[in-house]
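ingest -> fold -> write
write: protein_1
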Amino acid sequence: MIEIAGMSVKELADTYQTPLMVYDENKLRQKMSDFMHYFQSDTFETGVLYASKAFSCKEILRLANEYGMCLDVVSGGELYTAGQVNFPMERVYFHGNNKSLAEMKMAIEYGVGTIIVDNLQEAQVFNELAKNSDHVIHILLRINPGIDAHTHKYIVTGHVDSKFGVSMLQEEEIVRVIKTFDENEHTVFEGFHAHIGSQIFDKNAFAAEIKKMFGFVKKMEEDHGIVLNTVNLGGGFAATYTDADAPIPLPEVCATILDTAKAQQDERQTHVKKLLIEPGRSIVAEAGSTIYTAGFTKQTPNKNYVFVDGGMADNIRPALYQAAYDADVANKDDQPKTVTYTIAGKCCESGDLLIEGIKLPPCQAGDLIIVYTTGAYGYSMASHYNKLPLPAVVFVKDGKARVVIERESYEHMIALEK
């Protein structure tokens, strides 16, 4: 029987039912510790922002705070969650391409330390709102460096036609954004943010991003007299989903980023003081697994199906952008994998297929199927499609489990309905 952090999958399923999302807490802690350790520099002040969108709940934010991480939020809901665990607001960065007035006011009220504005219109609106702030707010602008990180088209975010940020080609608009905050005593424009994609396996993509960013920082100084001190390089750090994935080792990717940035600083004589990154997926993805109970099986002329008690409602990624996963039958891990299956969910969509063409032992009702590396964008993208309640989430450490998100009841699911 397969175990997670010292607990058998069967014990977890029997105790908490399925579908169940399980995190190995030691893996979470190790990843946070490693990022904080390896992303250190003698040249720059460094910061590691946990990207809430990958997986946000009170307990994961408590862990991030424990390790001294900063926090990336993109909505009022993510900010509210941070507030509920007293996350230090000076270490919170508020992103988003279409922040509402209510969210911007909320950020000011909560005392958020840094706002990443996405465009000129937002900059103008937020600048007016910030005049009522009782604290100084640091401002970054998201720009698009035009880097193609060779990821799926839905998760490439740094190209010039992205919905996010302002293209480097729109230099006049970027200068206008910066000058918008010049005369506001409650704001300080610090620098630029960029994000070139997700699940990046080529460290040269990060190096290319850094060179363009530092080059643009220098251009702002030479052409417009604007001296900038912060560069946020975003995320994109990859995780291992299947044997086909080969993420860059964390020490290597951190060294690449820091060494390239230092070389650019020396070469261009820029004045960047702070360097930031935003790992989310790579912290939580591999630490998380989802346990399902197999139901019926079905054989068609070309496929063998095994149906599970979850699906696209708790993991939309395979249907959304053909994300690949690996899995095992937890209670048959000692048996040969002789049958090629399609693991399908129970949602009423033909595209509700979690994994296609995977070799498993012969499956039958009651088997426990564990899908690996579901810790990122599983729960955070989960839905109530077909009125399926959200699964429970447990953290397991040294053979002991604790519930961090309770399983949703039917009553809770319809509590807001009239």
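write: protein_2
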Amino acid sequence: MTSRRYAVQRVPGSDLELQIIGRDMADDVRSVHSLSGGESFLVSLALALGLASLSSNKTRVESLFIDKGFDSLDPETLDIAIASLDTLQSLGRKVGVIWHVPILVKRISAKVMVKS
């Protein structure tokens, strides 16, 4: 999803802590806490998609809901995120996005709008 820009791995000796490997920075290892807002959003989305793909035959994850995060993305990264969601939709996955970013109104064709 991020053009192999990052890899995520477990911190050695830790059960739940993760770290980022910057592929475009000579495999520099850094804390997930060093990610920008947009980077954090993309890594979180990639992890959610990865977990969904690990679902077993008995438990299938067919829907994904994303709340916020799009406002922290620059235009190029937003294109990557939306292209990834488009790909999921074309594969038959249901993706729900909750947003407050006006550009997404134009970019996402099927929508339910809630106005107060």
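write: annotation protein_2
The chain is about 35% helix and 20% strand.
The first helix runs from residue 37 to 53.
pipeline exit 0
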